[in-house]
Amino acid sequence: MSEQPTETRTPPQVPVIHARGLTRCYGDRAVVDGIDLDIARGEVFGLLGPNGAGKTTTILMMLGLTEISSGEMSVLGFNPAREPLKVKRRVGYLPDAVGFYDQLTATENLAYTGKLMGLARAERARRIEQALWRAGLTEVASKRVATFSRGMRQRLGLAEIIMKRAEIAVLDEPTSGLDPQATQEFLGMIGELKAEGITVLLSSHMLDQVQRICDRVSLFRAGHIVLMGAVPELAVKVLGAGFVVEVEAEGLGLARRLAMIPGVTHVETLSVNRFRMTAERDVRPDAARAVVAVDGSLRRLSVDEPSLEAIYTRYFQDLPAGGARHAA
Amino acid sequence: MRREGSPFQGMSTVFVKELADHISSVRMLMLQLLIVFTALAALYEAINSLRQNTAEDPFLLLRLFTIDQAPLPSFVAILGFLIPLMAIGLGFDAVNGEHNRRTLSRILAQPIYRDALLMGKFLAALATIGISLAALWLLVIGLGLIFLGVPPGSEEVARSLVFLVVAIFYAGVWLSLAMLLSTVFRSAATAALVSLGIWLFLTILWPMLAPALAQVVAPPDPRYALLGLNDPATTVWAQELLRLSPNDLFEEAMLAVLSPTTRSLGPVFLDQLRGAVIGAPLPFGESVMLAWPQTVGLIAGTIILFVFSYVLFQRQEVRA
Ligand SMILES: Nc1ncnc2c1ncn2[C@@H]1O[C@H](COP(=O)(O)OP(=O)(O)OP(=O)(O)O)[C@@H](O)[C@H]1O
Ligand SMILES: [Mg+2]
């Protein structure tokens, strides 16, 4: 039960989740096909991709809940296939369709999993109370889960991870089926996990949310990771530029001037005195300087980070027809 | 490849939770009521007939278990019929229920092996049945004390305790079967229907089919028929075929243990010996030895069926 605490901590530079050539076949069909993954401690990492791309399968392999066909994987330094208990003791998992024992109360449900985690009675009671409080479920702690809404069930699932004091939280589509406000609250709680230094692995189809909370994302397609990195990096790769800067200013020959700024790939004149620049970096200071240089007056200067949505759509648009749905 | 940690870690937790679930469940209450009322009816008749029968009987208490007063079958026969129902009732949704409630992946993401979950569930259901049977056993002893007015002898108590143990193994067979089907079928309703189908087949149809099959496999010699006798070869076949059903094994074992005069469960003599007053009762140890092969058959059946569900469950996908 009790390993040395030194064993639980991988050094900060070593990735907490590491996979090389990870493959899972059903029959002769590779559902996850040779993916490489390195996730650093404290990172919020997003898994994106169309239905059936292999996100859930990857997550299940990480927890030792489904066989690894080939390739290697380590989670917190442990092999999930050979040492599943060590992995599962340190990793919290919120499945995409999370269920509870309806006839039991929220507290009783957590007490059961708490016992399975091997928590002693007093410690368990303390952690349950704290976790329910953090998940905002204190008031319904002694209500039967049968009466819970979808949002409350999701939060109860998160409370379980909080109770576990997991080092890694694996959340499979945690916000699907939640209303906008519940989604906001849930994202807030994920943010709290991150603030505590917990590594969060998140699969989702809600691109704007993923963009908001993830440090890095990976795009799955038919069992491969086709893109991986921070959103601005991906934007450069897919859209050809990372930033869209809009300038509203008067000034003679401004459009030409703006186009000469290094890093700007394209300038579009939207209307008189309104320009949209596409650039590899945030070129707002240069744009301001350009306006001053032509002795113009600057009215508005705004930057749009490229949206993940745009990247995603563009990526799948560029594929040959039907390619994106290959695995669905 | 050795797995780290104990496969039984968390098993006691699962056991306690499942036991609490069973004991407080409406389903269990209904099953218990069914059994208690049917058993009470059988016992009532048995007590009535035993009180009229003033003859000395050294095993009066055991007669409570075995005496049958038409139209009611004996207490043991009723249990032979109803124990499977109880076991099926507790086992048919053991695994697929977790799938359908979508709790399986969440539970298996805790630091336990699947072994612990399956084993804990099996033992909890078996303990539930054990508790009910023990309560029934006490009921029989109590009623015997009150209405027959004779304190049970130590041998009677020992024999009736053997009955209790064998009955639990008998429940084990049906429980493993129900759990196996709950692993095979994702729908609990399908698992329940198939279990009940097997139960009806083995308890009602098989006793009729087995002799018919025996006639086909070993056609009786017409010379025996001329003498008005059964061909021993055919009878042996019928008996062996019948023994494929756990119900038959249970009834044979009970006959050996609860009717001390039973000297043999051999296929040829079984019918002649039932209720016959030839010879003295067998000593306790010898009766147990007589019931031993049947008991082992029940235990083996339990283990084989459990291993099947174990292997299947290990290889099953956790996701819904
Ligand atoms: N038990 C199974 N047998 C065969 N194929 C399976 C099995 N389970 C999943 N698959 C296949 O594996 C592929 C990947 O599934 P997975 O659940 O990992 O996708 P996903 O990326 O999580 O999709 P979603 O966004 O819909 O959750 C799918 O094409 C699915 O059909
Ligand atoms: Mg999925």
Structure characterization notes:
The complex is a heterodimer of chains A (328) and B (320). With 328 residues, chain A is of the alpha/beta class. Chain A has two domains: 17-235, 3-Layer(aba) Sandwich (Rossmann fold), CATH 3.40.50.300; 243-305, Alpha-Beta Plaits (2-Layer Sandwich). Chain A has helices spanning 5-8, 55-62, 84-90, 106-117, 121-134, 150-164, 180-195, 207-213, 231-239, 254-259, 284-293, 308-317; strands at 17-26, 29-39, 44-48, 70-75, 91-94, 168-172, 199-203, 216-221, 224-229, 243-250, 264-271, 274-279, 297-304. Chain A has a six-stranded mixed sheet with strand order 5-6-7-3-8-9, with helices on both faces. Chain A is elongated, with a radius of gyration of 24 Å. Mean pLDDT of chain A is 88; it is low at 1-10 and 322-328. Chain B is an all-alpha fold and 320 residues long. Chain B has a domain at 11-204 and 298-315. Helix content of chain B is 75%, strand content 0%. The longest helix of chain B is centred in the middle third of the chain and has 35 residues, at 114-148. The A-B interface holds A 1, 56, 60, 63, 65-66, 82-86, 88-89, 91-95, 97-103, 112-113, 115-118, 157, 160 and B 1, 3-5, 9-10, 13-14, 17, 21, 101-103, 105-113, 317-320. The complex binds adenosine-5'-triphosphate and magnesium ion (MG). Adenosine-5'-triphosphate binds next to α2 of chain A. Chain A: GO terms for molecular function: ATP binding; ATP hydrolysis activity. Chain A: Involved in beta-(1-->2)glucan export. Transmembrane domains (TMD) form a pore in the inner membrane and the ATP-binding domain (NBD) is responsible for energy generation. Chain A: This is ABC transporter ATP-binding protein. Chain A: Keywords: ATP-binding, Nucleotide-binding, Transport. Chain A: InterPro entries: AAA+_ATPase, ABC_transporter-like_ATP-bd, P-loop_NTPase. Chain B: GO terms for molecular function: ABC-type transporter activity.
